[in-house]
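Continuing the series of single-chain predictions for the mutant panel. This is the parent chain; the variants come on the following pages.
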Amino acid sequence: MAVHGALIRQLRYHGERLVPQMFRHQPEKYVQQMCHIRGVFTGHKICVHGVSQDPVEGIAKLTVEKQEIDENKLPEDAVVVAVKSCAVHWVDVLMIAGQYQQAPPIPYTPGMEYSGIVAHPGTSKELKAGDSVYVGDIFNTGPRSYGDYAAWGGMASYSVAPASSVQKLPGNLSFDEAAGLNGAAETAYHGLVHCGNLKKGETVLIQGATGSSGLAAVQIASAVGANMILTGGSAEKLKIASDQARGEGKVKGVFNYNEEGANIVNFVKSLGIKGVDVIYDTVGGNKNAKDLLRLIKFGGRFLVIGWTSTPLAGGGRGAGADHATANSVPTNLIMMKGAQVIGCPVAIHTRLNPAIRKQRLQTIDEWVKQDLIKPYSSHNFAFNQFREALLAKWNRSITGNCILRCQD
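Parent structure:
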């Protein structure tokens, strides 16, 4: 079922000569029917064929290739989705350069989560062709997963996922919003709730609150009823982050760490807050860790979510891996504060214990219905602007999510 934009435009132009009368006002349906008979889906996909010195080089080496999917050669549980919106994540950029700890098989198509229209439901009893859906299951499909579906990312005209990973679009979310829902929300929930045990009335400092998982953390902390201090690199981004508090928990202060003379310790003291219960750190950095630990209450929880300030520290199979930039945390402060430093790797933890995901998804779904979680994206790009989209994410030009629109 290949809904090819150029062919549809030709059919509209030629009208009666090419299209049977019953389809003359709906050439898309004619194309869909003809392609369904063939059982072949054609389009284009972005491909990664090797690793690079750095993400900028990796993005430059990406190729756009013809896509042809024969539904008769797919696994029985496979669903074909005509992709409308695909989230562009920080991890996508690192993977493209081979700088992420997990290495997808090469070649593969990037894009860990996406939304679109069911083109072929396979043997699914819950889905039918034409359903609006999203695929936000990084554990079982796409380049962050393992197994039969690891090569099928969302940066393509079509992608393929197991039926269990394909969910119907929530009625109150757009395709763009749904495409960036689970990756960020599950990361934030796993950190704040599962690992950090964040409670109503507590105070959490969200370090790097303006990225995708940072904005999700603001929404989830607010939904829990916790108050927040937000940090970020610009006043404009921090204003957007503050607006994400949709529940009982409120933002008590915002800190721009790029301002001249900025001092997070003095700033928090100026708010009259004597210490925070939880730190949610997406940024990393040795000096940052030292300063943040000085702010934590005795027995507080320091949640390690990521290290965007030293992105190549994690290493991978790419030539540019820089293990020398790996972060360190001062053990003297950990001891004197009685602090709990907790690594929060949502993908690894869920793969080792899949049972922890059920409650997480149920709670996220409920908060989506209550409008407490609503993904925000500052930028969207057309499919032929995929390099610009990836570079914008890498260069920190994005607030929240970045979306690649894959259909005409």
